[in-house]
């Protein structure tokens, strides 16, 4: 039974996650509620989109006492950089602004082993889509270590190899279900990604926060378990925050390989508007019914875009919500308003992208 449930959260086969409360009950995450007020300047925490954490208290303490801590995260360079990915970028920026030393890895070994993406293609995507957008979204290149899993420092590879002594084959099976050589290497590489900021060479033991989507929790659990049993290295288990997933524009899952399901941050605004106008809403079968019963923002992709990204002002968002549920605004007008917000966002963002491109190239060439 336990095994089957674990497999529902397999990072390489994740579908939609409907019940986030269950993740908290069954996998021992902690709800983020205690920190919602203190960290309410991060929209995702304030609005409950970051719903769970592990050991966030360590990060809270480091921020409060101005002690050194790091943020580490990785990106799988496959497909376009979309609004789902923007969440991680905003989280990185937030903690960087709050004193974290930043480590970002391009998981090109993982994307090769798990998705068959050639290393040169992955490298291009990682730099031109991901890193460029990260910088355009405000991440400061000065306090940033960026690397490719396929091309990094010796101590990192040594750490990955030595860490492999900790988990047993059966533990890996319990976490990932059916194993393959590629899954094992990807999981151990990810453990090294997360733990190596604590190497002596990189400033030694410290709290590290890993902001991820809920699907990555199996990796976090494995890494925490390895860290707690490690004897060769003086390290502590990483902390993590977990965010909910945005749904796809047509309903179902948002996926970087399906352009109809997402809007890329580099998308031409005109095309993006078309996608908004065709998105799944929580509207009723007719205008008349909607005026009477109101719309359903909780089932609406337009509302979700506003909630996660386009309407940072809580009062304005509350108004959009109220106008929807009362039936005062119908979906056609509501979509147009959303399209306006989106156009403004994309135009402003894309202006910053041109400058960010050059910096991204420079960072990618630098030997880490
Ligand atoms: N596995 C992650 C993904 O699928 C990418 C990743 C690699 C990562 N190393 C990491 C995420 C370290 C967080 C921390 O997107
Ligand atoms: Fe969604 Fe707006 Fe329609 Fe409500 S009125 S269901 S928020 S598109």
Description of the molecule:
The chain has 368 residues and is an alpha/beta fold. It has two domains: 2-248, Rossmann fold, CATH 3.40.50.620; 267-351, Tyrosyl-Transfer RNA Synthetase (Orthogonal Bundle). It has 16 helices and seven strands. Strands 1-2-7-6-3-4-5 form a seven-stranded mixed sheet, with helices on both faces. β3 (70-75), α5 and β4 form a beta-alpha-beta unit. α6 packs across α7 (119-136), α7 (119-136) packs across α16 (331-365) and α10 packs across α11 (217-229). The longest helix is centred in the last third of the chain and has 35 residues, at 331-365. The protein is globular. Mean pLDDT is 94; it is low at 1-7. It binds tryptophan (TRP) and iron/sulfur cluster.
């Amino acid at each position: 039974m336990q095994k089957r449930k674990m497999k529902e959260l397999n990072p390489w086969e994740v579908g939609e996650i409907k019940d986030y409360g269950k993740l908290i009950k069954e996998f021992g995450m902690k709800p983020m509620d205690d920190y919602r007020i203190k960290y309410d300047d991060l929209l995702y925490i304030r609005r409950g989109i970051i719903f769970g954490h592990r050991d966030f208290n360590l990060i809270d303490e480091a921020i409060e006492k101005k002690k050194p801590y790091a943020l580490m995260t990785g990106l799988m360079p496959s497909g376009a950089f979309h609004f789902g990915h923007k969440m991680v970028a905003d989280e990185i920026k937030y903690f960087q602004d709050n004193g974290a030393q930043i480590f970002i890895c391009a998981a090109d070994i993982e994307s090769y082993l798990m998705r068959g993406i050639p290393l040169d293609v992955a490298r291009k995507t990682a730099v031109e889509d991901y890193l460029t957008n990260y910088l355009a979204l405000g991440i400061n290149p000065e306090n940033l270590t960026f690397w490719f899993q396929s091309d990094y420092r010796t101590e990192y590879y040594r750490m990955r190899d030595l860490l492999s002594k900790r988990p047993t084959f059966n533990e890996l099976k319990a976490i990932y279900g059916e194993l393959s050589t590629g899954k094992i290497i990807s999981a151990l590489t990810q453990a090294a990604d997360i733990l190596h900021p604590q190497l002596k060479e990189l400033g030694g033991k410290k709290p590290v926060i890993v902001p991820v989507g809920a699907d990555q929790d199996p990796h976090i659990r494995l890494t925490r378990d390895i860290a707690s049993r490690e004897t060769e290295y003086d390290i502590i288990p990483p902390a993590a925050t977990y965010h909910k997933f945005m749904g796809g524009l047509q309903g179902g899952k948002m996926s970087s390989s399906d352009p109809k399901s997402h809007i890329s941050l580099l998308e031409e605004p005109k095309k993006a508007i078309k996608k908004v106008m065709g998105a799944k809403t929580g509207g009723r079968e007719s205008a008349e019914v909607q005026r009477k019963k109101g719309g359903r923002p909780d089932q609406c992709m337009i509302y979700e875009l506003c909630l996660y990204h386009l309407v940072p002002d809580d009062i304005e968002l509350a108004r959009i919500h109220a106008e929807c549920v009362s039936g005062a605004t119908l979906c056609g007008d509501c979509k147009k308003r959303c399209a306006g917000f989106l156009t403004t966002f994309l135009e402003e963002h894309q202006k910053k992208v041109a400058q960010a491109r050059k910096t991204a190239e420079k960072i990618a060439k630098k030997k880490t």
